[in-house]
Specification:
The structure holds two protein chains of two kinds.
Chain A lengths: L1 E8 L3 E5 L19 H10 L8 E5 L4 E4 L3 E9 L2 E3 L2 E2 L5 E4 L4 E4 L4 E9 L33 E4 L25 E6 L8 H9 L2 E7 L3 E5 L13 E2 L4 E4 L5 E4 L6 E2 L2 E6 L4 H5 L6 E6 L2 H19 L2
Parallel strand pairs in A: 12-20
Antiparallel strand pairs in A: 1-4, 1-11, 2-3, 3-10, 4-9, 5-8, 5-10, 6-7, 6-9, 12-19, 13-14, 13-20, 14-17, 15-18, 16-17, 16-19
Chain B lengths: L6 E6 L4 E5 L6 H13 L10 E6 L6 H8 L3 H9 L3 E6 L6 E4 L21 E5 L2 E4 L9 E5 L20 E6 L1
Parallel strand pairs in B: 3-9
Antiparallel strand pairs in B: 1-2, 4-5, 4-9, 6-7, 6-8
The chains are: A alpha+beta, B alpha+beta.
C-alpha cells in the first residue's frame, strides 16, 4: 500500500468513484459510480490508467491534497479553480506533482463536479466488485463516506503503465458543460402527459432545486399533468425523468432508487448524463427530444474522444 | 436474459421487466424482439421460490390508527396479515427492499398523507395491496404495523439481499 496524498481539506463532498457495480441492481443496489463518466474516464486515460480505476469526485468545492510522493495527476470535469502549489493548474491534461506538492481548488467557476485521477488509481474499499462510494449504505471507497481532513489516500497499483505527463484531450473534444441542453428519448409513460404538458417538457426551462444529490435532482419547472391509473412499481435507470403526482419532476442520477411507481415520461440519454452531472442547484436547463439513432451517434462521439486518449 | 452478452441486468417487476443493456451491442428493437419471443415461450410450470418465515412483533407506531381505520381488532389484524403466503414481486427501490403481496383485501389502506422522514429499519408495513419490510432508515409513506429482527439488507453477502423475486414470505407473530 503506497500512500500518495494526505487530505488537508475535504471540500464540500469528495468521494472515491469508479465506473460502479452493475451486477446488483436486482437486489436494489444501483450501479452508482462517477456521475460524469466521461470526465472520470478521461482523467484516468490522461494518466495512463484504465477507465475503471477509482478517481476522486469533487463536488462544488474541491479538496486540498498534499502529495506524499511524486505522482502524475489529471483534473477534468468542472472548473473548480484547480491549483498546484498555488498556481492555476491546467485541466484535461496529465501533470506531474513532486512530493510535498499541494493540489487545491480556489473556487467554483463553472459546472459542478471535478475529477482527480492519479497514475496507478486511488485505492478504496471494494463492495460488490466496485470501489465506488455509496453513501446511502456507507459502503465502498473511503469507508463508504466522503473524505475527511487527515485521511490518507493510497495507490491501487504501484506499477501502472509508464506515466507520461502532457497527454492532453483536444480542446474540441472537451465537453461543453455550458450548453445546458439534455438530450432525452421518450419514456414508457410519455403518453400519459397531455399535449400541453408534453410541449412544456420539451420546450420550457427547468431548474435544479436545492434538493439535488447523487441520487437525483428534484426539478423546478412547469407542472406536468398526468392521466391514467396508479402504476405498479417497476425497475428504473439513471437518467429516468419521473413525474410525481403533484406534477413535479425528478431526474434520477447515479445513486438512483432502483424501482418505483411514478410515471417515467422521458430518459436522459447516456451521452447527456455527463452534462446533467455538471448541473448544480439553481442551474437552468432544457430537455431536447432525440431519436435512439441520434442518441447512439452522440455516444459514439464521446467514445471517439476517449479512444483518442487510449492510444499509447 | 442474463445469459445474453448485450444484457447487463434484468429486473422483473409485477407486470414488467426492466432490461439494462449495452447500447454498443444491442438496439431497443433487436432486444425488444428477443424479449417478446422469450415472453411467449416461458415455462408453464413455475418453480416455487424459497420460503422465508419472518417473526413479527405487532406493535408498530400506526397499529392503533390502522385497526381503527380498518375496523378490526388487533388480533384480527394479526390473524389477517399472517394468513397468506406472500410473493416477492419486485426487489428494489433501496438495497434490501422487496414489494410483497397480494395483501388480503380487508387490509387495503391508501398510503399515509404525510410520509415519515425516517422509518426505523426492520419496520413491517402495509400500503395499498402491498406489504413490506423497511431494510434501511429511509423516508416512507407506508403504515407501520410491526417490526422484525430479520435483516433484509446483507451488505457482506452477494447478492446483498435476503429476498429474491419469486421467493415466498410467511409472517408469524413473535
Amino acid at each position: 500500500m503506497t500512500a500518495v496524498f494526505s487530505v488537508v481539506e475535504p471540500g464540500l463532498l469528495t468521494t472515491v468513484q469508479d465506473l460502479g457495480r452493475p451486477g446488483a441492481i436486482a437486489s436494489g443496489v444501483p450501479q452508482a459510480g462517477a456521475m460524469d463518466r466521461f470526465a472520470h474516464a478521461a482523467a484516468n486515460l490522461l494518466v495512463g490508467n484504465d477507465r475503471n480505476q477509482a478517481t476522486l469526485e469533487c463536488t462544488l468545492s474541491g479538496p486540498g491534497l498534499l502529495a506524499l510522493r511524486p505522482c502524475l495527476v489529471a483534473i477534468t470535469g468542472a472548473d473548480l479553480g484547480a491549483e498546484v502549489n498555488g498556481r492555476a493548474a491546467p485541466m484535461w491534461t496529465g501533470i506531474f506533482m513532486a512530493a510535498g506538492g499541494r493540489l487545491s481548488f480556489a473556487g467554483r467557476r463553472s459546472a459542478a463536479r471535478a475529477y482527480v485521477a492519479v497514475s496507478g488509481g486511488f485505492d478504496g474499499e471494494r463492495w460488490l466488485g466496485s470501489r465506488s462510494t455509496y453513501l446511502l449504505v456507507s459502503r465502498g471507497g473511503m469507508h463508504g463516506r466522503g473524505l475527511k481532513a487527515g485521511d490518507e489516500l493510497h495507490l491501487a497499483a504501484d506499477h501502472s503503465a509508464p506515466a507520461v505527463a502532457g497527454r492532453q484531450l483536444a480542446r474540441a473534444m472537451v465537453p461543453d458543460y455550458a450548453d445546458h441542453t439534455l438530450a432525452v428519448i421518450a419514456g414508457p409513460h410519455l403518453r400519459r402527459l397531455d399535449v400541453t404538458s408534453r410541449k412544456a417538457l420539451f420546450g420550457e426551462t427547468f431548474k435544479v432545486s436545492a434538493q439535488a444529490d447523487r441520487m437525483g435532482y428534484r426539478l423546478e419547472g412547469p407542472p406536468l399533468v398526468l392521466s391514467g391509473d396508479e402504476l405498479l412499481s417497476f425497475g428504473l435507470a439513471a437518467g429516468s425523468i419521473q413525474v410525481v403526482n403533484s406534477g413535479q419532476t425528478i431526474l434520477l442520477m447515479a445513486d438512483h432508487q432502483t424501482a418505483g411507481g411514478y410515471a417515467v415520461v422521458a430518459t436522459v440519454v447516456s451521452a447527456s448524463l455527463p452534462v446533467a452531472a455538471q448541473l448544480g442547484p439553481g442551474d437552468e436547463f432544457r430537455f431536447r427530444s432525440v431519436t435512439e439513432v441520434q442518441a447512439r451517434s452522440m455516444r459514439l462521439e464521446l467514445s471517439a474522444a476517449l479512444a483518442s486518449l487510449a492510444s499509447p | 436474459m442474463r445469459k445474453r452478452r448485450d444484457v447487463r441486468q434484468a429486473v422483473a417487476g409485477y407486470a414488467s421487466v426492466t432490461v439494462h443493456f449495452d447500447p454498443d451491442q444491442a438496439t431497443v428493437d433487436s432486444l425488444g424482439a428477443a424479449i417478446k419471443r422469450l415472453a411467449a415461450t416461458r415455462p408453464k410450470v413455475e418453480v416455487p421460490g424459497r420460503l422465508h418465515r419472518i417473526p413479527v412483533v405487532y406493535d408498530g407506531e400506526d397499529l392503533e390508527d390502522v385497526t381503527r381505520s380498518l375496523n378490526l381488532s388487533r388480533e384480527e389484524l394479526i390473524a389477517t396479515h399472517t394468513r397468506p403466503i406472500y410473493r416477492v414481486f419486485l426487489v428494489g427501490f433501496v438495497p434490501g427492499w422487496a414489494y410483497l403481496g397480494p395483501l388480503p383485501e380487508e387490509l387495503y389502506l391508501p398510503r399515509r398523507k404525510v410520509p415519515r422522514m425516517q422509518v426505523p429499519p426492520g419496520s413491517v408495513a402495509i400500503a395499498g395491496r402491498q406489504t413490506g419490510i423497511y431494510p434501511l432508515p429511509t423516508p416512507g409513506g407506508w403504515h407501520l404495523i410491526g417490526r422484525t429482527s430479520v435483516k433484509l439488507f446483507l451488505p457482506d453477502s452477494d447478492p446483498p439481499c435476503l429476498f429474491r423475486t419469486g421467493d415466498r414470505v410467511k409472517f408469524f407473530a413473535a
